[in-house]
Write a structure and sequence with these properties.
Blueprint (H helix, E strand, L loop, with lengths): L9 H4 L4 H23 L1 H9 L21 H4 L17 H7 L2 H14 L1 H12 L3 E4 L9 E4 L1 H17 L7 E4 L7 H13 L2 E4 L3 H16 L3 E4 L1 H14 L8 E4 L6 H13 L6 E8 L4 E4 L11 E2 L5 E6 L13 E7 L10 E7 L3 E2 L12 E2 L3 E3 L8 E4 L2 E4 L1 H8 L4 E10 L8 E9 L5 H16 L5 E4 L2 H8 L10 E3 L5
Parallel strand pairs: 3-4, 3-5, 5-6, 6-7, 18-21, 19-20
Antiparallel strand pairs: 1-2, 7-8, 9-14, 10-11, 11-12, 12-15, 13-14, 16-17, 18-19
Helix pairs in contact: 2-3, 2-5, 6-7, 8-9, 10-11, 11-12, 13-14
C-alpha cells in the first residue's frame, strides 16, 4: 500500500492503547514474515529452514524470539563481497504463486486482465526492485549498502513527513538541511521528508559542499525557522555567526542527528542562540540508522529535558535485550536495541542487533509533552561495540568506552572544541599508551582550571588519566577536526600501530 499525506494513519496510531498497538504489530508481523520475508529472502529462508522454524508459527512479538539475531557480521564477508544481496527480497512468479494469499493473487489477475501484464510487472517492480541505496557509516568499519525500492522510498518520505508534523512545522515555514551530502540516511531522510510534507527546504550539503561562509550566507538569505544537521557542525555554524555578529532571531527550531545529543549540549547551544536573538529556539535530537531506513525524533519540549524518540509502531518492532544473554527486557529497562521492520521491501533484516545500548529502554503510554500515545525510545543511547565506530578500546590496559570521552568534554561549558589522540610513546608499538587531549577554549577562561576539571572528570568517567592536555587556537582545532572536509569530524584518533 502506498501512502500519501492524507492517507497516513499517524494520528490514529498515536491514539491507540498499548493493547491495540500490540494487536496491530502482531497482525502485520505475521503477514510480513509469511508474505514477504520467508518466500523472497534468500538469507532468511535458509535461516528458518536450518533452524526448523515454521514461519506460520510467527504470529506475535513473543513468537519473534524464535528467530535468531542478525547483525552487521551477517551482512559482510571477505569471501563474498555480495553477501548483503542475500538480504534483498527477490520475488519471482513461482514464489508469488506459492506464498501469496488467494485474495492478493486474484487482485493481480484482475489487474492483468484490465490493464495488461505490463501493469502487473510495473507494480511488482515498484514494490520490490531496488532503485536507491545508502550505506552504513563509520570510521573503521566496512560500509554496508542498504537498498530501497520505490515502496521503501514512500516509507522514507512518510517517516520524514511524520517528523515534520512532530516538530509542528507549518507549510509557510522554511527549513535548511545542512547534513553532509552523502549516500547516508540523515541527508536523504530530511530531503525526502520535506518534499513529502510540502515544506520549502534548502539542502546545502553541509560544510564539505558550501563551506561555513556559504552556509551562513544561505542561512541569512532564506532565514529558515528550522535548521537540521550534525551537532558538531551546527554548533560550529552558530559560533561562526556569533563571531560575525549575525542576527539569528528567525531560528525557532534546531534538529540534530547522526550523533548523540545530551541535555547539557542543548543548553550550551541554546545559550549561544539566545545571545544572537533566537531566545525561544527549541532543540530536538533525532535517532536513526541505515538498516532501519528511517529516523525518529523528540517532540517539542524544554531544552532541559528529552521527550524520548517517538516511534512508528505500524512500521517496526523494537526490542531491548540483554547484550550478553539476549533476554528481552521489559518496559523502561536498559539493554541493546534490536530492530525488526514490519513494512519493508528491498534490503530486509530481522531481529537486527544495532550495537546501541539504550539506558531507559522503551516507554509506553502518553508522552507527557505532546500527549501522543505512542512508544518512545530513551535518548540516552551509546555504542556497545566497535561495529560501526571507534567505541570500545583498550587504553593503558583498561577497556574504555570512548563515548565517555565525548560525554565529558561536550558537557564542559568553557570547552569550544576538543579532540582525543591515542598513541604509543615514541611511536614505538611496544611502548605504553599515551592519551593527549586537545582543547580549544572560550576566551577569558583559565587553562589551568579547565585542565584540572578535565582530568578529574575523565578519571571518573573512564578511569584514564590523560598524559597531556594541549590548548590550541580554535582555527587550528577546526582544521584538525576536518569539520568542513570530512563526512564525520575526527574526534578520536587512534594512532597506535595496528596488528
Amino acid at each position: 500500500m502506498y501512502y500519501t499525506i492524507g492517507m497516513d494513519p499517524w494520528r490514529h496510531i498515536t491514539s491507540l492503547s498499548c493493547a491495540q498497538i500490540r494487536e496491530l504489530q502482531n497482525r502485520k508481523l505475521q503477514y510480513f514474515i509469511n508474505g514477504h520475508v520467508y518466500p523472497f529472502s534468500a538469507h532468511y529462508r535458509k535461516l528458518f529452514d536450518d533452524h526448523k522454524i515454521n514461519p506460520r508459527h510467527i504470529r506475535t512479538i513473543e513468537d519473534l524470539q524464535q528467530v535468531p539475531f542478525s547483525s552487521k557480521l551477517d551482512l559482510v564477508s571477505k569471501d563474498n563481497p555480495q553477501k548483503s544481496r542475500e538480504f534483498v527480497l527477490a520475488p519471482d512468479q513461482e514464489k508469488i504463486r506459492r506464498s501469496w494469499p488467494k485474495t492478493k493473487l486474484f487482485g493481480l489477475a484482475a489487474r492483468s486482465l484490465l490493464n495488461g501484464k505490463e501493469s502487473v510487472q510495473a507494480a511488482l517492480a515498484r514494490e520490490y526492485r531496488p532503485v536507491f541505496m545508502t550505506f552504513t557509516t563509520g570510521t573503521t568499519s566496512t560500509p554496508v549498502p542498504f537498498t530501497y525500492s520505490r515502496y521503501d522510498l514512500d516509507n522514507l518520505n512518510l517517516s520524514g513527513c511524520r517528523m515534520v508534523k512532530l516538530f509542528d512545522i507549518q507549510p509557510d515555514e522554511r527549513i535548511m538541511n545542512i547534513f553532509p551530502f552523502a549516500p547516508h540516511l540523515a541527508f536523504w531522510q530530511v530531503f525526502f521528508g520535506a518534499i513529502e510534507a510540502g515544506v520549502f527546504a534548502l539542502s546545502t550539503g553541509g560544510g564539505k559542499v558550501l563551506g561555513t561562509e556559504g552556509n551562513m550566507s544561505a542561512l541569512l538569505r532564506i532565514k529558515p525557522s528550522m535548521v537540521l544537521g550534525v551537532p558538531s557542525y551546527v554548533y560550529h555554524l552558530v559560533r561562526f555567526a556569533q563571531e560575525k555578529g549575525h542576527d539569528l532571531s528567525f531560528l525557532k527550531k534546531i534538529v540534530l542527528g547522526a550523533a548523540k545529543v545530551t541535555v547539557p549540549y542543548k543548553q550550551k547551544l541554546a545559550e549561544m542562540l539566545a545571545a544572537q536573538g533566537a531566545r525561544d529556539a527549541r532543540i530536538f535530537g533525532t535517532y536513526g540508522f541505515t538498516e532501519a531506513r528511517s529516523a525518529w525524533a523528540e517532540c517539542p519540549a524544554e531544552n532541559q529535558v528529552s521527550s524520548g524518540y517517538h516511534l512508528y509502531p505500524d512500521k517496526e518492532i523494537l526490542e531491548v535485550v540483554d547484550p550478553q544473554t539476549g533476554e528481552v527486557k521489559g518496559e523502561g529497562q536498559d539493554g541493546e536495541l534490536v530492530y525488526t521492520p514490519l513494512d519493508a521491501r528491498a534490503s530486509v533484516v530481522l531481529r537486527y542487533r544495532t550495537g546501541d545500548f539504550v539506558k531507559g529502554g522503551i516507554t509506553y503510554g502518553a508522552c507527557p509533552y505532546c500527549g501522543r500515545a505512542t512508544l518512545r525510545l530513551s535518548s540516552d543511547i551509546s555504542r556497545l561495540s566497535d561495529t560501526k565506530d571507534l567505541q570500545l578500546s583498550k587504553v593503558k590496559g583498561t577497556l574504555v568506552n570512548l563515548n565517555h570521552f565525548g560525554s565529558v568534554l561536550n558537557d564542559i561549558a568553557p570547552v569550544e572544541e576538543w579532540q582525543i589522540e591515542i598513541r604509543k610513546r615514541h611511536n614505538d608499538p611496544y611502548e605504553v599508551d599515551e592519551v593527549v587531549v586537545y582543547i580549544a577554549l572560550k576566551a577569558g577562561v583559565s587553562e589551568e582550571a579547565v585542565a584540572c576539571m578535565i582530568k578529574d572528570q575523565l578519571i571518573g568517567a573512564t578511569e584514564i588519566t590523560p598524559n597531556e592536555i594541549k590548548f590550541i587556537p580554535l582555527p587550528e582545532m577546526l582544521k584538525r577536526l576536518e569539520l568542513e572536509t570530512a563526512n564525520k569530524e575526527k574526534r578520536i584518533l587512534d594512532l597506535r600501530p595496528k596488528g
